[in-house]
Amino acid sequence: MALVYKGNNAARQAARSARMMQTTQNIMNKMSQRQKAKNDAELKLRNDADLFTQDFYKKYGDIENSSSAEINNSIRAWALETGAEQNRLYQAAYGANGTPENRQILKDQQLKDQAAVKDIASWMAIGNKELASISSNNSAIGQDVMDGRFTRGNDDKRLAFQQDLQQSKFASLKMTRKENGQMVLMGLDKDGEVLDNRNLSSDVADQAAGNTWYETITKDDLLRNTLANNWNDKNTGLSQFFEPTKRTVQTYDSKGGYIQEVVEEAYDTQEVFDRLVSEYSNDLNAEIKNPNFSKTWDQLWKGGYLKSAEGESMEEGEIAWKDVKRLEVMDEPAFQEFAMNLGYGDADVNEDGIVNNEDRKHLVDRMYGAARVGLAQYYSKEMAPRGNKVLSSHKVNKNNVPQGNEENGQYSAAQQLVIKAEKPIWNKLHAKAPSIFNMPENERANAIVQWFNSSALHKVPSKQGVRFMTGSQINAMKRSDKEFKRKNSNDIYKIVGKDAVPAPIMTEADILQSDLREFERAMEGMAGLSAGYTNLFHQSDKGDKSVKVFNTKEEAKQAAGPNGKVFAGTGKNKGKFTIKS
User: Fold this and answer.
1) 240 in any annotated domain
2) Tally of structural domains, the chain
3) Shared-domain flag, residues 128 and 275
């Protein structure tokens, strides 16, 4: 009986051990399966998070690279940090402990990041374009041309930041995001202090609203294109309001020594100007209201068309047209603050005791008046003469025009024509020459060029465009054309027309003359005056200072002496006799 009991007990023990082992195995299997499932879930979560973040990285990768390596580095650092944060938020939102609140946080962050990338991409595209515009502007200023030049009144702060970027003035750059989601690019010094910053989101929004960063004058904006169309259009052009008249013009050819008589149909430039600013002022106002008029305005200012009836430069020309556009839309409080900030104090223009919109309108109207003058000047001086037609041309006097005066002190008709054209120029030149002659020798050339360019003393038609430059100024242009190869720095050259070759007009030896009269002769030649007549003017001017008048011829002869000459008086001295010592 005992043996049976022991055997049964052993069997039960073995069965129990087997069951325990199976149970343990089952538990281990289930634990392993659960851990595997958890591992798989975590791996899937990480993979899903990575896939989610890859969309952000793809949008970042589509951003146009900047020409500035520092900007690219700052954006890359921000993108890596932002991508890592998106990954963390995704796992928190869709992990084991994920909640609807966490998923909403992720969604909100994703939208913010997408908006940020969009702003950065837009700013980079605009910024690259504007960096190229800055280079174009600098080149246009260096060459003294309007094509590629910025208009005045651009955002100085934005321009300064872009120029500092271009010139690598920041030690490093850092991209940050404000609490409202706007992206800010900061320029830092070597110690990490902020030197300057740009709100990229604000800049992009400003651009989208039509407020360009920098307004640039392009080839299509040049006056010869825009205003030419406004004048010549067969249906709406201003030229349709005017008719040319027949006239005869005589000019003296100093080289050929004859009078050239030309019969032509020509526009009366003064009539064109007067009627444009009066009868057709509304047509000019329509041009002024064009959104691109600031480009026209700066060219009128730079080209010297903003002048008063007396030929003086109008102070309105010094004001940027963008400021005028701001004035047009200001309310009264803004205008009052504007006037105070400029230092005008009480801006009561019409003196009615209050500062209001009426005063603002007075200022705007004055600027519009100056703009109408500039447009009328350009149309009358540049466009109208292009419609002139020569009907006939012939030489009135092929013989050399006599130099000097006749026995009775009177000049021939041919002489009078030359004198009328050249004597005023000679007078101005000889009033100025001594002051330049007395300057230090190294300053004379620049002084002569500056004065000739501003005084227009030369006898070349203004429509051809004539200017003078020193050799050093031409060398500074660094032109590769063979005609512009290195010049003598102290020689003076004349350039007629936009693309003409510089022609030497006054040598360094002429400029450094130690004799005033010889110096004057060189300047007379530069002005294009006829040599024979300059001698006549010189003698006349010299003699006029010592003219003596006598009531009788006998008194005059006695005073003149054996070598003197007696002349019959003219003008206020008619009936009397004069001598010149």
Assistant:
1) yes
2) 3
3) no
Sheet-wide strand order for 194-199: 172-177, 183-188, 194-199
Question: Could you give the 3-state DSSP secondary structure of residue 184?
Answer: strand
Write down which residue in 331, 357, 392 finishes a domain.
392
Residue 182 in any domain: the answer is yes
Q: What is the DSSP letter of 381?
A: I
Mark whether 383 and 251 lie in a shared domain.
yes
CA 428, 432, 437, 440 dihedral sign is negative
65 & 193 share domain: yes
Q: What is the dihedral of CA 155, 161, 166, 170, to 10 degrees?
A: 170
Residue 568 falls within a domain, yes or no? no
Q: Is 188 helix (H, G, I), strand (E, B) or coil?
A: strand
Sign of CA dihedral 116, 121, 123, 124: positive
* Residue 313 per-residue DSSP state: B
Domain that holds residue 185: 2-208
Write the pLDDT tens digit of every residue in 516-570: 888 888 888 888 776 656 666 665 555 444 457 777 888 777 777 776 777 776 5
- 304: DSSP letter: T
Asked if 372 and 252 sit in the same domain, the reply is yes
3-state secondary structure of 247: strand
In angstroms, what CA-CA distances link 111 with 204, 206, 362, 424, 567?
18, 21, 49, 76, 100
Quote the CA–CA distance of 439 and 437 in Å, as a whole number. 6
Nearest CA to 186 out of 64, 78, 58 is that of 78
Give 483's contacts (C-beta < 8 A, 6+ positions apart): 501, 502
Q: Which long-range contacts (CB under 8 A, 24 or more apart) does 161-167 make?
A: 161/187, 161/196, 161/197, 161/198, 162/127, 162/130, 162/131, 162/134, 162/213, 163/134, 164/195, 164/196, 165/68, 165/70, 165/71, 165/127, 165/131, 166/68, 166/131, 166/134, 166/135
Out of 176, 208, 240, a domain closes at 208
Side-chain half-sphere exposure of 305, counting CA atoms within 13 A = 22
The SS3 assignment for 134 reads helix
Percent helix, strand, coil in the chain, to 5, is 60, 15, 30
199 shares a domain with 246: no
**Residue ranges of the alpha helices (H) in 279-356?**
281-288, 293-302, 321-329, 332-341
pLDDT digits (tens, 9 = 90+) for 198-223: 888 888 888 787 777 778 899 999 99
Strand ranges, E, within 314-402: 389-397
Measured between alpha carbons, how far is 126 from 124 in angstroms, rounded to an integer?
5
The interaxial angle of helices 321-329 and 357-378, nearest 10 deg, is: 140
- 277 in Cβ contact with 380 (< 8 Å): no
Looking at the fold, whether 75 and 201 belong to one and the same domain comes out as yes
Whether 417 maps to a domain, the answer reads yes
Do 71 and 202 sit in the same domain of this protein? yes
Instruction: Specify whether 204 is located in the same domain as 231.
Output: no
Confidence of residue 296 (pLDDT cuts 50, 70, 90): very high
Tokens standing for residue 72: 């690219």
Residues in the chain: 581
pTM (predicted TM-score): 0.52
Q: Give the closest residue to 452 by CA, choosing from 525, 379, 403.
A: 525
